[in-house]
């Protein structure tokens, strides 16, 4: 319990309340006692005077014990707690109503008596109590004049009865009882309200700490939802703490996710690379070993094996280049550096590169470019690569006599790039897979095919990196159309060019 903020705050609050309550009750008891003493002494201040005025208590400087016995009997009839003494001028006790064995002192201090006699009104004035010197008592006193000369004092101690002790006061005083009950009741009430308030105040803190723990248990990767009741950092310290925690958690979970993702991508890459390189490497090794082992091969056969080994090594080279490019794109290591450029000019450049290949295969390469093409905002190097991949496929999979058209059409906010061919097309069943890595439709002539099955996967990643998507429409034996969009460059940037 004391390990929580709520527990600590509650303990401190209750400790303080009960300390204050204790002091208050002690103060109440003390002041009540003083009040009773003051009231009693005021009421009884003239008792001694009245008794002295009634009869002579000293005769020739000596105590008239008979008179004193009478006086003390009268007094006891009125107040059973009172004790009566006759003192000489120095406070020595000459007569006492207290039985000898109960008397613990033989004289009384004259200082309080002088204060009383001088007319001091700041009651209570406490004097010595010869019955019990450890407890002072209120008293009434009066000088005894004999022939006009003071010869002693009549000293009456006034007991307070049951009010002398705390338990007596609690039992006997209605006022004390009411005060204490009121104090205890208010203490209990204030404690209950305080506990409730602290509970409310620390509730959000407890909720936040539960969320932090849950975030930790979930491996720092589960997203932390926005709080329903928070004031979004504009409230108190807890609201601000909560806002900062949510921002921090969002950053941490994004980073942890990114780390996990890139880690699994790296693992996948290592597995794939070793698997994919093994096939061409093994077959290249096979041809070379045949060449080395078989001594009776004709020149033509040797040339054939050598050509195949070279083709496999070329394929290996292309595979490695494509694999690394795709891996870098997948691992988000390739960042696009968008800049405004003329897509029309780039399209013409790329077409130029494929002129020879197209004419060798008897394919018509045509362009459909709007002469007033606006600038686009994209990474020129990556877009060049995407166009190359699409054109290479279109020329490769279009038989002689067919046509490949590269068109760039401007729209209100974007341009649409289309590579269309009249080639062999793609079956509907294959369409959803052609962007998958290594997906190749004709693998029968794998030995001789140029492709790696990675070109469209790379193209798709590049287009996605530009916030766009690549679409394909195709019909077997009629041709295919690949299309994607690129954003226009902001006019402010184009003006500066
Ligand atoms: P590849 O290196 O084999 O060309 P790609 O990823 O570029 O790999 O293409 C995947 C597969 O999609 C190809 O093997 C091919 O069968 C099919 N393909 C791609 N473009 C075309 C196209 N223009 N016409 C017909 N088939 C295509």
Detailed description of the structure:
Helix content is 53%, strand content 16%. It has 12 helices and 14 strands. The strands form 4 sheets. Strands 4-3-7-6-5 form a 5-stranded antiparallel beta sheet. The chain has a 5-stranded mixed beta sheet with strand order 9-11-12-14-13. A two-stranded antiparallel sheet has the order 1-2. Helix 7 (237-293) runs antiparallel to helix 8 and helix 8 packs parallel to helix 11 (455-465). Mean pLDDT is 86; it is low at 444-448. The structure holds adenosine-5'-diphosphate.
Give the secondary structure arrangement, pairings included.
Blueprint: H1 5-44, H2 47-54, E1 58-59, E2 62-63, H3 65-78, E3 83-87, E4 93-96, H4 111-117, E5 126-127, E6 137-146, E7 149-158, H5 166-172, H6 174-217, H7 237-293, H8 299-330, E8 339-342, H9 343-361, E9 364-369, E10 375-378, H10 380-396, E11 403-410, E12 414-421, H11 455-465, E13 470-475, E14 479-487, H12 491-495
Parallel strand pairs: 9-11
Antiparallel strand pairs: 1-2, 3-4, 3-7, 5-6, 6-7, 8-10, 11-12, 12-14, 13-14
Helix pairs in contact: 1-6, 6-7, 7-8, 8-11, 9-10, 10-11
Bound molecules: adenosine-5'-diphosphate (ADP).
Compact summary:
By secondary structure, the protein is α+β, with helices and mostly antiparallel strands.
